[in-house]
Design brief:
The chain is α+β, with helices and mostly antiparallel strands. 52% of the residues lie in helices and 16% in strands. It has a 3-stranded antiparallel beta sheet. Strand 2 and strand 3 form a beta hairpin. The protein is globular and about 35 Å long.
């Protein structure tokens, strides 16, 4: 789990998704990364139970998988907000 959360990009994705569900296009634009890179990180987060996806017509939106995960991530993000790696 720590290796998974050791990526600044994945932490930023989870921080963004803690606000509300987003599609990969919005995530990639918000974080200024390529869509394939965002998709790769989302795949890892999904495989490890941090996010789930839901289909909305033509779009797939990603969201935090549960309230427990959301609480854990919010605590992690708030505790590490001042670290250089998250900026």
């Amino acid at each position: 789990m720590f290796a998974l959360l050791g990526s600044p990009i994945r932490i930023k994705i989870l921080s963004l998704l803690s606000e509300r569900p987003y599609c990969v296009n919005h995530i990639s634009k918000s974080l200024n990364i390529s869509q394939p890179l965002a998709s790769q990180h989302l795949k890892l987060l999904k495989e490890n139970g941090f996010v789930v996806c839901e289909r909305d017509a033509q779009k797939i939106r990603y969201k935090i998988s549960s309230e427990e995960v959301k609480k854990f991530l919010n605590k992690l993000i708030s505790e590490t907000k001042n670290l250089e790696v998250i900026r």
